[in-house]
Amino acid sequence: MYCIIFPIFRNFKPKTTGHYQQQILILMQETYYDPKDLKKFGKISEWNEALGDKFFEYYNKVFEAGALSPREKSLIALAVAHTIQCPYCIDAYTGDGLQRGITKEEMMEALHVAGAIRGGATMVHGVQMMNKYNKLSM
Amino acid sequence: MALSQSLLKQGKALADAQNQLTYLSNGIFKSELPSFRDRIKQCGVNQLYPKTLEILQVNLGYMCNQVCAHCHVDAGPDRKEIMTKETMQSCLNVIRQSGAHTLDLTGGAPEMNPNFRWFVEEASKVGIQDFIVRSNLTIIMANKSFNDLPDFFKTHNIHVVSSMPHWTRGKTDTQRGDGVFDKSIKALQMLNDVGYGMPESPLRLDLVYNPSGAFLPGDQMALEQDFKQALLTDFSVHFHHLFAITNLPISRFLDYLIASGNYEDYMYNLVEAFNPSALENVMCTNTLSVGWDGYLYDCDFNQMLHLKIGSSSNHISNFNLEALQKRAIAVSQHCYGCTAGAGSSCQGSVT
């Protein structure tokens, strides 16, 4: 039995299924992100209550209805979450979108907006490349 | 995700109410999360007691033409438990004397009970203020004998409450079965045609929204606005109000939560969203549920979990309001579903 999912285990020969599961568990414990940590977000205030409280007050205010609806804000948050590649935020705002009745078509379109801007940011620098190329070339 | 048979017919362990209660009392509720009883104690509430009885909810049977993936009743075409005419007669006697202002008929599909129309005709003579029938909509389209239900409802001034998990076909059919969305829209148009749900119409048509997955319902008013706009724009359908109802972790929804690996997160979410204001208004404090066999329960969910009522008056045939008012309400971890966020009841949010 060889592991094809995790390349790190390519040469690992488990003696028993339990041994194999134990190694998988060790690998999982060593990842940076744990989905359960999202529930502990509020704990950041424990090490600086004044700033933590101000941050969460601001955060909650941002998502209230204003010139934009909470639904629109949720879609923006989802798109930004993917741009900054925050797994906690992706979990949070996919769930938030489902609660608001946002469809998967709307979610994916929001992501394409993020993708277009991200791709556009790469490509628009092409002008800088072209300027430099032209300047240096005879 | 749509099913073809009830859990009972499939012989699944979770078809058994005791197995559900055992599951809900172990696991994370042994180690990480407080039991519902302990959580309400933190709010100074040792027991839940009834207030004035306002709603009598009668379950006419578990037979249904649909097999919805989230159904807390485990209803379906293969369920044969339906209320007899004799038990209905006992219900009528109680309706006349209970003082409840609302009579709420549910199922399964209550219309599939062969004595449904007789019961509605007799009950409507009592002159109850709000007479609800929970219709799954597709029953109106199931065969010709049900096509006249909108007129029948109108004749008896029935308040129709119908299920609709989303304004899109895909999400509705995933939860309730292929083709359910189109049939539901057609049934809503038929109800609109006789005046149900139209602006300013006294013929009340409300929709029930259950999330189609392991998440809690969002804000009821915002969802109502989205539903209204989409159904009107796409199908010219009108309705009055939307009730956003949380899926309680019992029966098929519990089975789904466990099978999909969402059980623990869902229970965490429910416990985290516990709202003391919702606790003050939970529906078991103003409602009594009558099972198809005449037994009384604190709510429809307790009925499905066979949590018998804590009173010597435990059956519609020995109904005694005075004795019932003194009972303590039976609770378990599923009750977190009614106290999460804005709260949840058969009439929607409670705060």
Descriptive report:
The complex is a heterodimer of chains A (138) and B (351). Chain A is mostly helical. Chain A has a domain at 68-138: AhpD-like (Up-down Bundle), CATH 1.20.1290.10. Chain A is 62% helix and 0% strand. Chain A contains six helices and no strands. The longest helix of chain A is centred in the C-terminal third of the chain and has 21 residues, at 104-124. Chain A starts with 16 loop residues before the first helix and ends with a helix. By secondary structure, chain B is of the alpha/beta class. Chain B has one domain (7-339): Alpha-Beta Barrel (TIM Barrel), CATH 3.20.20. Helices cover 38% and strands 10% of the residues of chain B. Chain B has helices at 7-10, 17-25, 28-31, 36-41, 85-98, 116-124, 138-142, 149-155, 169-176, 180-193, 220-235, 251-259, 263-272, 276-280, 300-304, 321-325, 336-339, and strands at residues 55-59, 102-106, 130-135, 159-163, 205-209, 242-244, 287-290, 296-297. In chain B, strands 6-5-4-3-2-1-7-8 form an eight-stranded mixed sheet. Classes of the chains: A mainly alpha (138), B alpha/beta (351). Chains A and B meet through helix 4 of A and helix 11 of B.
Structural class by SSE content of chain A: mainly alpha
At the first level of CATH, the class of the domain at 68-138 in chain A is: Mainly Alpha
pLDDT averaged over residues of chain A? 87
If you compute it from the alpha carbons, what radius of gyration of chain A comes out, rounded to the nearest whole angstrom? 22 Å
- Major β-sheet strand ordering of chain B: 6-5-4-3-2-1-7-8
Number of separate helices of chain A: 6
Oligomer: heterodimer
CATH topology of chain B: TIM Barrel
Low-confidence stretches of chain B: none
CATH superfamily of the domain at 68-138 in chain A: AhpD-like
CATH architecture call of chain B: Alpha-Beta Barrel
Which chains make the largest contact? A-B, 9 and 17 residues
| N/C terminus separation of chain A | 61 Å
CATH topology of the domain at 68-138 in chain A: AhpD-like
Global outline of chain A: extended
Task: Give the tally of structural domains of chain B.
Answer: 1
The total of beta strands of chain A comes to 0
